[in-house]
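Q: Give me the 3D complex with NAP.
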Amino acid sequence: MKIILIGSNGQLGSDLCIALKDRELVPLTDKDIDITDIDSVLAACKRHKPDVIINTAAYVLVDDCEDNVDMAFHVNALGARNVAVAAQQLGSVMVHLSTDYVFGGDEDRHTPYTEFDNPVPLSTYGKSKLAGERFVEHLCPRYFIVRTSALFGRAGSCGKGGNFIETIIRLAKQKDKLNVVCDQVFSPTYAKDLAHKIGELIDTRYYGIFHVTNSGTCSWFEFSREILKLAGSKTSVIPIKASEYPQRARRPSYSVLNNYHLRLLGMDDMRDWKKALKDYLVEKGHIARLKT
Ligand SMILES: NC(=O)c1ccc[n+]([C@@H]2O[C@H](COP(=O)([O-])OP(=O)(O)OC[C@H]3O[C@@H](n4cnc5c(N)ncnc54)[C@H](OP(=O)(O)O)[C@@H]3O)[C@@H](O)[C@H]2O)c1
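A: Here is the predicted complex, encoded as structure tokens.
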């Protein structure tokens, strides 16, 4: 099975390179392919004739998407379309990464979203990612759309210049208390665990939309408290409301993804986010390896 990986130097892309190292893998960065340019996408895909194309490339800066709406739709919607056209022309399976931020517009909802729920995004980022999903669904006969949330991985997000955990650890070294939002709830997800689950999925023919996150849920406040507890920091975390921390993009107050499709197919849930967080902190050298 020959696999093209678009966005191979990104946060998830880096872990996919490791998880798929025993396969025939062609890693492509933005120097090799520009997903907003259909000729570039078709040329790269025709050169390698892949069985599977994985698209992790995206414009992930949620607040910047509000200021650069055209760019958000170019990368997240038309970029996904271009990759779907290539997959369709070459008869390849497409794996496309999406987000929990396609949900959240139904603001009274506080139960996990399944793949069979109707997405209602709140932000330009969420709308552009949903538009990308729709192109993939309509153009590509065999696809896996993988929605995930709050990724943390060894490489850190290229687009975001790191990830939430690294930001909290850095700030905790500078301050003795941190104010963190407590009314946005989600499931943090370790890029390494997600990469292995994508490896399992592409060996199946269970095409469709999949929610793939670590188990368990938390707010940014609870996530920060656990990070600093494990890292042995004395900095305290103070819960604040999202309304006290204005951001340009609206974010869901609840965006937990029920990994229902995986469960229906008898595939294992991913481990609890707290266990994954411990492994991440060890992997990054923030804490020593723990005895289990
Ligand atoms: N990060 C999260 O918390 C999160 C949560 C839910 C879903 N997701 C989704 O998961 C996927 C991976 O996220 P990530 O955190 O791994 O992001 P990331 O680290 O920013 O990686 C994205 C990759 O896309 C590349 N890229 C951007 N524009 C491109 C273009 N026009 N053509 C080709 N490559 C391009 C970037 O390259 P350069 O940076 O070198 O340009 C980078 O390597 C995305 O689809 C994202 O929407 C992420």
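A quick observation: DSSP finds ten helices and twelve strands in the chain.
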